[in-house]
Design brief:
It is a single chain. The protein is built from nine helices and ten strands. By secondary structure, the protein is of the alpha/beta class. The protein has two domains: 6-141, CBS-domain (Roll), CATH 3.10.580.10; 145-225, 2-Layer Sandwich (Histidine-containing Protein, Chain: A). The strands form three sheets. A four-stranded mixed beta sheet has the order 7-8-9-10. Strands 1-2-3 form a three-stranded mixed beta sheet. The protein has a three-stranded mixed beta sheet with strand order 4-5-6. Strand 4, helix 6 (106-116) and strand 5 form a beta-alpha-beta unit. The longest helix is centred in the C-terminal third of the chain and has 16 residues, at 147-162. The chain is elongated.
Length: 226
């Protein structure tokens, strides 16, 4: 069973800015390339931070209010205030950057995004040099896999390969990423493993095993239906 790697899902043609890039140049780059963030790199193309629309909008939100206007954003910390007053990428950026490696799986990247509360990950090589960027939308691309591809992977790699089951005794149907399992397995204890491993296949939305029967109850005499 092979999970899709970040190197297969990421955008490779990524525009970066140097630390001394001025505010308006960053805004122009975001608008020109229709992106919401850009990595900040040093002279060796090593990523040192990320500037997002949120970082730039902090300046707009914190401007001193004119008479009759709402006051500037209250409660900003010193570091947030400094970023709001920044004029160059190195002053505006969020650092250190949250990065991923090309060999990571989509699952690993999604977990890091969730933990860090970010919408994208900068992808770097072993030398921390910029090689791409992966977004939430990129990760969702695994759910665009064809049902036939998902079924083939479940039958060949999961059931026959990883679990050593006789695929002739099993029925696998996939519709819009929803997997329905039928047929029979030798023992009841195998069923949770089958369900769990099928659920980890890229592109699977749900797994149902209501039509899956078993022969023996974990090796003991007798049989039944799950």
């Amino acid at each position: 069973m092979r999970h899709r790697r970040i190197g297969e899902l990421m955008t490779r043609e990524v525009v970066g800015v140097r630390g001394d890039a001025p505010f308006k140049e960053i805004v122009r780059i975001l608008s020109l390339h229709r992106v919401t963030a850009v990595p900040v790199v040093d002279g060796g193309n090593r990523v040192i931070g990320v500037v997002s629309e949120g970082d730039l909008l902090r300046k707009t939100a914190d401007r001193a209010a004119a008479p009759g206007d709402l006051p500037a954003v209250p409660g900003l910390g010193a570091w947030e205030r400094a970023k709001a007053e920044g004029t160059r990428a190195e002053e505006l950026m969020s650092a250190p950057p949250v990065c991923a490696r090309p060999e990571w799986t989509a699952v690993e990247a999604a977990r890091l995004m969730e933990v860090q509360g970010v919408k994208r990950l900068v992808v770097v090589d072993d030398g921390d040099r910029l090689v791409g960027i992966v977004s939430r939308r990129d990760l969702l691309g695994v759910f665009l896999r064809a049902d036939d591809d998902i079924r083939r992977e479940i039958v060949e790699d999961v059931l026959a390969g990883a679990l050593g089951l006789d695929a002739a005794n099993l029925v696998v149907e996939v519709r819009d990423g929803r997997v329905e399992l039928g047929g029979s397995v030798p023992y009841r204890g195998v069923i949770p493993a089958v369900e769990r491993m099928c659920a980890t296949v890229d592109g699977v939305v749900s797994v149902s095993r209501t039509r899956l029967a078993y022969g023996n109850d974990d090796g003991s005499p007798g049989g039944g239906r799950s």
